[in-house]
Amino acid sequence: MSKISRRKFFEGTGAGIVATAVPLKGQQAPAALKPGAPHTKIQITVNGVARKLEVEDRWTLVEALRDHLDLTGSKIGCDRGECGACTVLLDGKPVYSCSQLAVWADGRSVETVEGLAQNGKLDPLQEAFIEHDGPQCGFCTSGQLMSAKALLNHNAHPTEDEVRAAMAGNICRCSNYNRYVASVLAAAQSGSAAAKRRPNTAAAAAGSSRGKA
Amino acid sequence: MNTLNSVGHASPRIDALQRVTGAATYTGDRRLPGMLYARVLRSPHPHARIKRIDISKAQAIDGVKAILTRENCDVVWGSGDTRNKRYLFNNPVRFVGDAVAAVAALDRHTAEEATRLIEVEYETLPFVLDPEEALKPGAPEIQPGGNLSPNNQGQRQPEVLRRGNIEEGFSAADRVFEDQFSSAHVNNAQLEPRVSIGQWQGDHLTVFASTQGISNCHTEIARDLNLPPEQVRVVCQFMGGGFGNKNQCHDFDLMAAMLAKQAGAPVKLEFTRKEDFIAVHGRWPTKQYYKVGVRNDGTLTAIQLRGYSGMGPYRKGTGGIAGIEIYQCPHVDRSVYPVYTNKAVSANLRGPDYPQSVFGLESLMDDVAYALQMDPVEFRLKNMTRKFNDQIPYTSIGLEDCIRRGAEAFEWKKRWNPVSGGSTQGTLRRGAGMAMGSFFSSMGRSSAVIDLDSKGIYHVHVGVTDIGTAAKTTMALIAAESLGVPHDQINAKIDVIWGDTDRCPYSVGESGSRTTTHTGYAVVEAAKDLKRQIAEKGMPQGNDILTATANTNPTIPGMARYSFVAHFAEVEVDVDLGHVRVTKYVAAHDSGRVVNPLTATSQVKGGATMGIGMALHEELLYDRASGQPLTAGYYGARVMTHRDAPDIEVLWVETEDAYGPYGAKTLGEPTIIPSVAAVANAIYNAIGKRIKDLPITRDKVLGVLA
To answer: Is ipTM > 0.95 here?
Structure first.
């Protein structure tokens, strides 16, 4: 229907996003430990960067990521291991970060959606999610991306059924499953070619996320 | 249909980049300086009087900053009940999950601990879960005046629709068919749980809400807290779904504000997933008694419905059982009883009044067609609506094309078994079903403001939040079309400003599929005004800007404006296991001109898939002895997953409609309307047995086959 490619349409979006972001977020320093609550010093490598922090023993990994490392891309949809919105990679394996304690991640590596784009380039999965309209409300999207990432890391060319199986633990109530599966298959096909196409957008996204938004 | 420059072109969302990088700021992602966390204590009883609340132990915990109960908070939540006064904290409590107290503390764990230390002494009261039981003499009285919720005129009467004379209709019939159907309470189950942040700056309140409508949320917070509207600001930048249960202001918005006031600090109130399932609302369960008269040639003469809707203890939704209007029929008599029960509250969920009632109606119509040895497709083509309620012409109607083209794409003739219980392959039975629907394509009040600066950027201010429907992108496409901005320059030239009542004018709220038709229309009109100004004054120079506004409220004299839809499903039923799998699905939609085929198609795929889940899996089950909900949560509800979702083939029947922005009609809500019935009818075609109670779970399939 369109004479213009979706990619072309999308160019320049970064600027639009910055212009429309509302300067309201007002994030503060990580929330303090509760005096007297049992706590532990841990070290986690998050998206390739070593982070030291002191956590209450009862904090879940997603709580530590969101409230104390300011990585809010991972969402809490159920906080009980049902929906998959909090999926991150722990030493490369997809886990529900609501069902892991932060102390268990001591000495391990965690990858979140914020770490998908590398050197200012979107991951092919992110490119495909945009072009195939993966996210509707977008709340499950980070989890879908991380499950898909884990799949493609060990199976670069999955079948449709393999995609469904790998992502079965990620619920999308907008029920955009067809689009998500199509996105993952397209990303697998495009591989690194897609990653080369749009060098600047990831940087723009990073700017809008923690700058004015 | 003429081709346009931007509208009608598949376009990725203007905010997709934020959604795929984790950069999008949802309400729960905000953390304000000094912010406290809040939790709610809820009733463990379906019906009980609170005799005593003791908060002293909770108060004594280090870190607890504010506690609300009915004793110190008598705020009435206006939109929580359209008939009775519903307080934030009610006594008696009327369902398992009714709020009893709210606590704000330094962190969420402390708040949780404190809610557990609040001592409540209850006197339990008799309860009733079933709407028909609740109407019987001697049933526990849930609201003063009885369990039949008053109608729009305040009378204790059912909601009634009558046309012609129903007895004449049955007299004129050669055959009369009667049957009863029921549907379950199902949950909206949007991925983002309820969350709200209240922040006071002097006497000004900001609520960071997760809402489908910042404007109505704003107005209602001001009303319920007795504040001048100009002292209230509502912000919602990204929103993780709602499907009808985040429209308007909610009790958690008011609780967050009241806790913040008492604590003197911003408060974030978060609901757990379980609370989201039991304590907000889901779709109303129904009981439907249908009676249909038909001539031997298949012409309908009468449709009668007596229906009961379980509203929970508060009247938050209409409780309507709608859909008869998709049939042409001279004699119609519908009475619907919205009834109070002690189950979770019921209100809007995608296509609120329809999928459950179309399930009943279309199941019975299917039976009529089979009994008359007519193809169900032919039966619908013969009897489908031509004028609204047989009286009022439609502005456009593509229903016949939806049915014909949908049937062709689906290969109906090949897949449908003329004799039900058809093709057999081992333990698998295959069958095909279809159903149709319509949805009011509203036109009405909304506003838009467009500023043009000297750099040639159009700043489009619209009070949308974008609940996942791509509303922001829709507004950008409509603005580009109206302003003559080329499609490939939309992101460079069109700056959409949304989701903040301090920066955006009134918008209708993203419910009832009204955003494109209401607010999109306002954008068209504001753009016209701007173009007039440009013609008159030239482009702005230097620091100048041009500002155009539109407050539109179009009406359509003497015509009805509807969207139409026909869905086709093929299922495979395993007669040994009772398992149903949808193997082929075609959804044909007349939503007038489609503004963005990419995102519109996603919506249809999503709505149809939700409907399949409603047909096969979802129910908030209750224990009849204790009144406790048993299946609150995703595993319990068994919502659709990647494993269950079939490929949904979407077919657009783009009718020319003279109204609305570029002829666009309504879209999001109708996507679920016929899907439940289409699946149910396919199951009948596969196994030759009719299952009349939703959801059609394995035990029911095995039950009818036994």
So the answer is: yes
